[in-house]
């Protein structure tokens, strides 16, 4: 298990070690990452569809997802609230000009669900015995992590400045600690070993990673649970950010997890102003690195 975890992590750090200056190549990498995400999610769905007794397990999976989402939401909000009390952050007035289309963002948030659903239907009805799905998904994930490592390294962001952003660093650490506390609380609820529960709690909204990594280690059912937990984090964050960012910016930025540096960033900027942008990028960047590391470490303990 440890070897598998290291294999998953190696491409991320390898990609981060490579500096690129070709902007056209970076554009190709951007679109390749987007395509790979949906391909991996479809493979996750395919594995779910091929699972024996899938229909009989849907109720159990729904309860597990509900427990994960609820406990993580409460724990994360509490941890981020405490951080806000300790290090209060102030926002600017909301932008009055162009705002992101919230309907469009919510629809975009549903695309991952659609990808998994299509894959599940294909696996259930058309390809119940298609071989090597897990192997293809693992290699696709490794390629995705390599490309994401390239993106993170060549995004024009200074790692030193990101680590020196006290608000971003504090928000990321508050989310990590509160998520791990939630993971321990969930051990008797999910009825799994503590290290597996901590791995499930370490997705931080990165659903394409957590679904495949957890699914590869614990089986397709748990992979589906991890995916739904993290994609719902993203969707809930879209609804929460405009409501709480002025009163509690840390809670609004932090709950989005790794998505704060990309998917939820437009909402953070339009709702909280430009002052929130570097904080969100720093927090999301750090969580994007910590998520695969923590999942790999916890799963290696089994």
From TrEMBL:
One GO cellular component term noted in the UniProt record for this chain: plasma membrane
UniProt protein name: Uncharacterized membrane protein YbjE (DUF340 family)
The keyword Transmembrane is assigned to this record: yes
Swiss-Prot/TrEMBL keywords: Membrane, Transmembrane, Transmembrane helix
Source domain of life: Bacteria
One MF annotation (Gene Ontology) recorded for this entry: L-lysine efflux transmembrane transporter activity
Coiled-coil spans in chain: none
